[in-house]
Amino acid sequence: KAGVTQTPRYLIKTRGQQVTLSCSPISGHRSVSWYQQTPGQGLQFLFEYFSETQRNKGNFPGRFSGRQFSNSRSEMNVSTLELGDSALYLCASSSSSGGAHEQFFGPGTRLTVL
Amino acid sequence: SQQGEEDPQALSIQEGENATMNCSYKTSINNLQWYRQNSGRGLVHLILIRSNEREKHSGRLRVTLDTSKKSSSLLITASRAADTASYFCATDYRAQSGNTGKLIFGQGTTLQVKP
After folding, report:
1. Exposure b/e, A8-26, CB count within 10 A at least 16 = b
2. What does the pLDDT look like over B19-52, one tens digit per residue?
3. Residue in chain A lying closest to B107 (CA)
4. Which of A16, A25, A110, B25 is the most exposed place for a label (fewest CB within 10 A)?
5. Do B102 and A88 touch (CB under 8 A)?
6. Could you tell me the pLDDT band of residue B96, with boundaries at 50, 70 and 90?
Protein backbone atom coordinates (compact mmCIF):
# COMPACT_ATOMS: atom_id res chain seq x y z
CA LYS A 1 0.00 0.00 0.00
CA ALA A 2 1.18 3.48 -0.72
CA GLY A 3 1.84 5.60 2.35
CA VAL A 4 0.33 8.91 3.34
CA THR A 5 1.21 11.63 0.87
CA GLN A 6 1.20 15.36 1.42
CA THR A 7 1.47 18.15 -1.08
CA PRO A 8 3.20 20.43 -1.44
CA ARG A 9 6.30 19.48 0.54
CA TYR A 10 7.52 23.06 0.89
CA LEU A 11 5.68 26.34 0.73
CA ILE A 12 6.71 29.95 1.18
CA LYS A 13 4.03 32.56 1.75
CA THR A 14 3.85 36.11 3.03
CA ARG A 15 1.85 37.44 5.94
CA GLY A 16 -1.83 37.92 5.18
CA GLN A 17 -1.97 35.32 2.45
CA GLN A 18 -3.83 32.06 2.70
CA VAL A 19 -2.64 28.54 2.05
CA THR A 20 -4.17 25.14 1.33
CA LEU A 21 -2.37 21.91 2.15
CA SER A 22 -3.40 18.51 0.88
CA CYS A 23 -3.21 15.04 2.38
CA SER A 24 -4.00 11.68 0.79
CA PRO A 25 -4.40 8.92 3.37
CA ILE A 26 -3.51 5.28 3.02
CA SER A 27 -6.08 3.49 0.92
CA GLY A 28 -8.95 2.30 3.09
CA HIS A 29 -8.21 4.70 5.95
CA ARG A 30 -11.11 6.98 6.71
CA SER A 31 -9.67 8.95 9.61
CA VAL A 32 -7.30 11.82 8.90
CA SER A 33 -5.72 13.93 11.63
CA TRP A 34 -3.66 17.09 11.22
CA TYR A 35 -0.86 18.30 13.48
CA GLN A 36 1.34 21.38 13.62
CA GLN A 37 4.95 20.99 14.69
CA THR A 38 7.06 23.95 15.79
CA PRO A 39 10.30 24.11 17.80
CA GLY A 40 8.59 26.05 20.58
CA GLN A 41 5.25 24.25 20.93
CA GLY A 42 6.16 20.82 19.64
CA LEU A 43 3.49 18.66 18.04
CA GLN A 44 -0.02 19.98 18.47
CA PHE A 45 -3.28 18.49 17.28
CA LEU A 46 -5.28 20.61 14.86
CA PHE A 47 -8.31 18.50 13.92
CA GLU A 48 -9.50 15.10 12.83
CA TYR A 49 -11.89 14.12 10.06
CA PHE A 50 -13.76 10.89 9.55
CA SER A 51 -16.17 10.22 6.71
CA GLU A 52 -16.16 13.88 5.69
CA THR A 53 -17.06 15.06 9.21
CA GLN A 54 -14.85 16.92 11.63
CA ARG A 55 -15.01 14.86 14.80
CA ASN A 56 -12.39 16.51 16.95
CA LYS A 57 -10.69 19.88 17.07
CA GLY A 58 -7.68 21.28 18.86
CA ASN A 59 -7.15 24.73 20.32
CA PHE A 60 -6.35 26.70 17.22
CA PRO A 61 -7.99 29.90 15.97
CA GLY A 62 -10.68 29.82 13.34
CA ARG A 63 -8.13 30.80 10.70
CA PHE A 64 -7.27 27.11 10.64
CA SER A 65 -9.88 25.00 8.90
CA GLY A 66 -10.10 21.75 7.08
CA ARG A 67 -12.29 19.42 5.15
CA GLN A 68 -12.41 15.87 3.95
CA PHE A 69 -13.69 14.57 0.66
CA SER A 70 -15.64 11.41 -0.11
CA ASN A 71 -12.41 9.63 -1.11
CA SER A 72 -10.98 10.46 2.36
CA ARG A 73 -8.47 12.95 1.00
CA SER A 74 -8.22 15.94 3.26
CA GLU A 75 -7.22 19.55 2.95
CA MET A 76 -6.41 22.11 5.55
CA ASN A 77 -6.57 25.83 4.98
CA VAL A 78 -4.92 28.63 6.89
CA SER A 79 -6.17 32.13 6.16
CA THR A 80 -4.55 35.47 6.97
CA LEU A 81 -1.18 33.90 7.60
CA GLU A 82 0.94 35.09 10.50
CA LEU A 83 4.66 34.66 11.06
CA GLY A 84 3.90 32.23 13.86
CA ASP A 85 2.18 29.88 11.43
CA SER A 86 5.58 28.85 10.09
CA ALA A 87 5.76 25.18 10.94
CA LEU A 88 5.83 21.61 9.71
CA TYR A 89 2.27 20.47 9.11
CA LEU A 90 1.77 16.75 9.39
CA CYS A 91 -1.23 14.69 8.52
CA ALA A 92 -1.82 11.17 9.70
CA SER A 93 -4.29 8.53 8.69
CA SER A 94 -5.76 5.69 10.67
CA SER A 95 -8.04 2.79 9.99
CA SER A 96 -9.64 3.19 13.40
CA SER A 97 -13.20 4.41 13.57
CA GLY A 98 -12.83 5.40 17.22
CA GLY A 99 -10.17 6.46 19.66
CA ALA A 100 -6.71 7.36 18.48
CA HIS A 101 -5.00 4.19 17.49
CA GLU A 102 -1.87 3.72 15.45
CA GLN A 103 -1.51 6.65 13.11
CA PHE A 104 0.50 6.67 9.91
CA PHE A 105 2.12 10.02 9.16
CA GLY A 106 2.97 11.68 5.90
CA PRO A 107 6.29 13.46 5.27
CA GLY A 108 4.78 16.83 6.13
CA THR A 109 4.48 20.21 4.45
CA ARG A 110 6.98 22.78 5.64
CA LEU A 111 5.35 26.20 5.57
CA THR A 112 7.43 29.33 5.87
CA VAL A 113 5.64 32.64 6.36
CA LEU A 114 7.68 35.76 5.55
CA SER B 1 -0.87 21.99 26.36
CA GLN B 2 1.22 18.89 25.96
CA GLN B 3 0.42 16.02 28.23
CA GLY B 4 3.61 14.08 27.85
CA GLU B 5 6.92 15.04 29.31
CA GLU B 6 9.98 13.14 28.24
CA ASP B 7 13.41 12.83 29.67
CA PRO B 8 16.11 13.15 28.91
CA GLN B 9 15.67 15.87 26.29
CA ALA B 10 18.87 14.70 24.63
CA LEU B 11 20.87 11.51 24.81
CA SER B 12 24.21 10.66 23.23
CA ILE B 13 25.54 7.10 23.30
CA GLN B 14 27.94 4.83 21.45
CA GLU B 15 26.82 2.17 19.00
CA GLY B 16 26.03 -1.07 20.77
CA GLU B 17 24.90 0.61 23.97
CA ASN B 18 21.32 0.64 25.18
CA ALA B 19 19.21 3.81 25.16
CA THR B 20 16.40 4.45 27.61
CA MET B 21 13.86 7.24 27.27
CA ASN B 22 11.13 8.05 29.74
CA CYS B 23 7.73 9.61 29.32
CA SER B 24 5.26 10.88 31.90
CA TYR B 25 1.68 11.93 31.30
CA LYS B 26 -1.10 13.55 33.28
CA THR B 27 -4.51 11.99 32.66
CA SER B 28 -5.95 8.52 32.17
CA ILE B 29 -5.18 7.02 28.81
CA ASN B 30 -6.49 4.38 26.43
CA ASN B 31 -3.07 3.68 25.04
CA LEU B 32 0.42 5.14 24.74
CA GLN B 33 2.45 5.10 21.55
CA TRP B 34 6.05 5.78 20.64
CA TYR B 35 7.11 7.42 17.38
CA ARG B 36 10.44 8.20 15.74
CA GLN B 37 11.19 11.25 13.63
CA ASN B 38 14.27 11.71 11.50
CA SER B 39 15.46 15.26 10.81
CA GLY B 40 12.08 17.04 10.74
CA ARG B 41 10.43 14.48 8.53
CA GLY B 42 7.24 12.55 9.15
CA LEU B 43 6.80 10.39 12.20
CA VAL B 44 7.20 6.63 12.09
CA HIS B 45 5.08 4.56 14.44
CA LEU B 46 7.19 2.25 16.60
CA ILE B 47 4.95 0.59 19.14
CA LEU B 48 1.58 0.91 20.87
CA ILE B 49 0.91 -0.27 24.41
CA ARG B 50 -2.59 -0.39 25.80
CA SER B 51 -3.52 0.81 29.26
CA ASN B 52 -4.04 -2.77 30.47
CA GLU B 53 -0.59 -3.90 29.31
CA ARG B 54 2.60 -3.53 31.30
CA GLU B 55 5.30 -4.44 28.82
CA LYS B 56 5.64 -4.90 25.10
CA HIS B 57 8.48 -5.89 22.79
CA SER B 58 9.15 -5.29 19.13
CA GLY B 59 12.55 -6.31 17.82
CA ARG B 60 15.15 -4.28 19.70
CA LEU B 61 12.47 -2.15 21.32
CA ARG B 62 11.00 -2.71 24.76
CA VAL B 63 8.26 -0.50 26.15
CA THR B 64 6.93 -0.52 29.68
CA LEU B 65 3.86 1.22 31.03
CA ASP B 66 3.10 2.02 34.66
CA THR B 67 -0.38 3.52 34.85
CA SER B 68 -0.13 4.04 38.61
CA LYS B 69 2.82 6.36 38.04
CA LYS B 70 1.51 7.61 34.71
CA SER B 71 4.81 6.85 33.06
CA SER B 72 6.32 4.82 30.26
CA SER B 73 9.80 3.98 29.11
CA LEU B 74 11.27 3.03 25.76
CA LEU B 75 14.41 0.91 25.70
CA ILE B 76 16.39 0.48 22.51
CA THR B 77 18.91 -2.31 22.87
CA ALA B 78 22.16 -2.66 20.95
CA SER B 79 21.73 0.76 19.35
CA ARG B 80 22.92 1.54 15.83
CA ALA B 81 23.90 4.79 14.15
CA ALA B 82 20.68 4.51 12.15
CA ASP B 83 18.71 4.86 15.40
CA THR B 84 19.79 8.51 15.56
CA ALA B 85 16.50 10.42 15.59
CA SER B 86 13.99 12.14 17.83
CA TYR B 87 11.65 9.89 19.78
CA PHE B 88 8.20 10.95 20.93
CA CYS B 89 5.66 9.41 23.21
CA ALA B 90 2.03 10.10 22.39
CA THR B 91 -1.03 9.42 24.46
CA ASP B 92 -4.54 8.63 23.43
CA TYR B 93 -6.26 10.00 26.49
CA ARG B 94 -9.52 8.75 27.88
CA ALA B 95 -12.30 11.35 27.72
CA GLN B 96 -15.91 11.14 28.82
CA SER B 97 -17.25 12.27 25.50
CA GLY B 98 -14.83 10.06 23.61
CA ASN B 99 -11.68 11.08 21.88
CA THR B 100 -11.11 10.55 18.23
CA GLY B 101 -7.98 10.91 16.18
CA LYS B 102 -6.13 13.05 18.70
CA LEU B 103 -2.76 12.09 20.09
CA ILE B 104 -1.01 14.28 22.64
CA PHE B 105 2.72 14.27 22.12
CA GLY B 106 5.59 14.80 24.49
CA GLN B 107 8.37 17.20 23.56
CA GLY B 108 10.60 14.34 22.51
CA THR B 109 14.04 12.94 23.22
CA THR B 110 16.81 13.55 20.70
CA LEU B 111 18.99 10.47 20.48
CA GLN B 112 22.42 10.51 18.91
CA VAL B 113 24.18 7.19 18.38
CA LYS B 114 27.85 7.60 17.59
CA PRO B 115 29.49 5.00 15.34
Report:
1. eeeeebeeeeebebebbbb
2. 999 999 988 888 999 999 998 788 999 999 999 9
3. A42
4. A16
5. no
6. low
A30 φ, ψ to 5°? Answer: -110, -10
Q: Which residues of chain A are within 8 Å of residue B104 when distances are taken between CB atoms? A: 45
Q: How far apart are the first and last CA of chain B?
A: 36
Can you spell out the DSSP letters for chain B? ----EEE-SEEEEETTS-EEEEEE-SS-EEEEEEEEE-TT--EEEEEEEETT-SEEEETTEEEEEETTTTEEEEEE-S--GGG-EEEEEEEEE--TT---S--EE---EEEEEE-
Contacts of A53 in chain B (CB under 8 A): none
pLDDT the model gives residue B73: 98
Q: Per-residue pLDDT tens for A21-59?
A: 999 999 999 999 999 999 989 999 999 999 999 988 999
pLDDT tens readout for residues A76-87: 999 999 999 999
Chain B neighbors of A2, CB-CB under 8 A: none
Exposure string for B49-72, b = 16+ CB within 10 A, e = fewer: beeeeeebeeeebbbbbeeeebbb
**Closest CA in chain B for residue A33:** B101
Residue of B nearest to A97 (CA): B100
Other beta carbons less than 10 A from residue B47's beta carbon: 17
Q: What is residue A84's three-state secondary structure?
A: helix
